[in-house]
């Protein structure tokens, strides 16, 4: 068994971050791995920032990825990637959905949203390895904007480091959704996977 | 095995579970027959999980009106011979504190377990409370898991321990256990169901002074036996290393952080570790063994220095020459983490840090100003937003008309409406605990001149709003009480309550009307409004505030999230609103500045409604002075 593999998933309440963790965790257990994870619930879900951790391997005990120890940061939203910069080190990979979710505070309280370039420049100070894709657009191609989270899941598998079989995660997607939504989500997964493979080439 | 669930009778199988599902599974494995609770993050899913299988497994599960009743329910089952669980968040234990103090004199017949789900860093709470102190004060032994697997195992074992020692036990968890996830190996499910029998025994169960005097020494004897037994419980483990200079005592989840830190630093081979699974009573023999074997000890525990203080007392009693660290090295506020423990151990062992934390902190600090603020917000279409807005307009009007230099005061309570704390509404001035909005309002009414409009939710009203309402009537407090009735315990995930007409297990029941209760309690002004009808809402709030004496307004509108779910189920479409850019005045900003709805965004200087977020409540259309917001055609 792999010793330790830490995935941090960041996004905004409603983007399906928790669902991604559940799919990953279930798949990992099926593949015989130890799994630990944690998520922010309660106050944090109402439109606020959400982050979730999934940790795999024989050495993982605690529920949280330690500072500077994420292998992959999957960011459903650019600013949320930056908010979780403390998990990153030079050996981390960031998979970034470039589609912004601008918080209402930018309209009502004069808070500002940075340019995408600024966000990426700053992420680069922690890690050079950033895979960018617009998961919202890709999800639209797959048939539902709601499946951007599964596009990102596909990209995470496309990145190639994850010690979970693709077949196992697909079984989890099938078990989770109705027949119609399974088709959309499997398409979303495959497109995310392909886009990530292409970026890496 | 396929289709494995938390209720599967499949010993040895592994399943990926939420901490609270695992805790519920532990109770199921132990054959729990009664589970009562009041919702509260991070404890809620334990009872929700049990409610799902209540009928199938013949468990009586209820959402009680508050934690005191929930605990008394469980106590009643235990003295009648059944295994029973009361679950609550840390501050819920305060509400149940009164019966707890006498329950320990009774002990237990059927296994009795109190789950205290605590919240370091106050993720969803008003404070960080360490209930190990309450447990010690109430003479209730505490079991504390280091992992989710252990949480499940301990919950199952707690019932047997409770019966073995005829005493009740507390399982103390933290958010990262309750809301963590882990693979869990399932155990066997106890399916045998006992027949409850209440045997009258007033010497044991009826506490006049004589019984207190009789039973306290017996209770202390039980505790002494438990104290003797904890050293050999598997939850407490001492790993001595030859020649170790440093020892670590790690309580609960801190043990996981500690073992990861030792591995990260590569110093595990030279440090002795005592894992604590029963902080009260402490395994004193193991503590003594460790203290006598090392020069220095670090106590790692979240929140207060509970174990630390007791370990220092043992060292002092035995004159053991050992330096004991604890809260001088790890913080008393917030959660611990592998990083925090790594830094503490590194500094005590002169080890190099595995990661340049300072550099990471610098980077976080430097990038923080770039981050837009994303606070938790009331949902688009949330009826509370409309209530707050209408209360504000009415109360300011009354304050202005008084001719005095006064500002309305809005005592708030525990629930989603408290999110009005943030701009632009800024309509929640105090939050203390369940029910305190009405209590604080009572106090203020006798000492300041401001209009006082206190608000709480429907579930909170049933939990602890009624006594302070009666107090206002009895003691003539000139306040306005608003019950923002969204027909759900929304913040914790829409649990039913006495006003919803449904029980925890989905049975139909009476639906109590808050206005009926208020009238029956003698409140002189009671009206019910729909907050989405802003004009009438403002008018009613104004009359309520001007009313001499206590007034109560029920602002009733179904929670937007439930409404959306019901609409989807019925196949109904939400018809969103949109802004007519011709009519929108770019110097106005009223819709952003008055409401703060997440669906209204600013593009250029104009308002635009994100139709994917809009729930079609129409409140913004009523607020817009230029009539620029209109509903799309259905």
Describe the structure.
The complex is a heterodimer of chains A (201) and B (634). By secondary structure, chain A is α/β, with parallel strands linked by helices. Chain A has one domain: Pyruvate-ferredoxin oxidoreductase, PFOR, domain III (Pyruvate-ferredoxin Oxidoreductase, domain 3). In chain A, 42% of the residues lie in helices and 17% in strands. Chain A has a six-stranded mixed β-sheet with strand order 2-3-1-4-5-6, sandwiched between helices. Chain B is α/β, with parallel strands linked by helices and 634 residues long. Chain B folds into four domains: 217 residues, Rossmann fold (3-Layer(aba) Sandwich); 131 residues, Rossmann fold; 186 residues, Thiamin diphosphate (ThDP)-binding fold, Pyr/PP domains (Rossmann fold), CATH 3.40.50; 59 residues, Alpha-Beta Plaits, CATH 3.30.70.20. In chain B, the strands form six sheets. Chain B has a six-stranded parallel β-sheet. A five-stranded mixed β-sheet of chain B has the order 9-11-10-12-13, sandwiched between helices. Chain B has a four-stranded parallel β-sheet with strand order 14-15-17-16, sandwiched between helices. In chain B, a hairpin with a 2-residue loop joins strand 19 and strand 20. The mean pLDDT of chain B is 96.
| Percent in strands of chain B | 15-25%
Mean pLDDT of chain B: 96
- So, CATH architecture of chain A? 3-Layer(aba) Sandwich
Query: What is the approximate shape of chain B?
Result: globular
Percent helix of chain B, as a range, is 25-40%
Question: What layout of secondary structure does this protein have?
Answer:
The complex is a heterodimer of chains A (201) and B (634).
Chain A: E1 5-12, H1 17-30, E2 35-39, E3 49-56, E4 72-75, H2 78-83, E5 93-97, H3 105-108, H4 116-124, E6 130-133, H5 135-142, H6 148-158, H7 166-176, H8 179-200
Parallel strand pairs in A: 1-4, 4-5, 5-6
Antiparallel strand pairs in A: 1-3, 2-3
Helix pairs in contact in A: 1-7, 5-6, 5-8, 6-8, 7-8
Chain B: E1 14-18, H1 19-29, E2 34-37, H2 44-52, H3 54-57, E3 60-63, H4 67-79, E4 84-89, H5 90-95, H6 97-106, E5 112-118, H7 132-137, E6 142-143, H8 148-165, E7 169-174, H9 175-178, E8 180-185, H10 202-205, H11 209-230, E9 237-239, E10 246-251, H12 254-265, E11 271-276, H13 284-291, E12 296-300, H14 306-318, E13 323-325, H15 338-349, H16 357-367, H17 383-401, H18 436-445, E14 453-457, H19 458-474, E15 480-485, H20 514-520, E16 525-529, H21 534-546, E17 551-556, H22 560-570, E18 577-579, H23 590-595, E19 600-603, E20 606-609, H24 619-623, E21 629-631
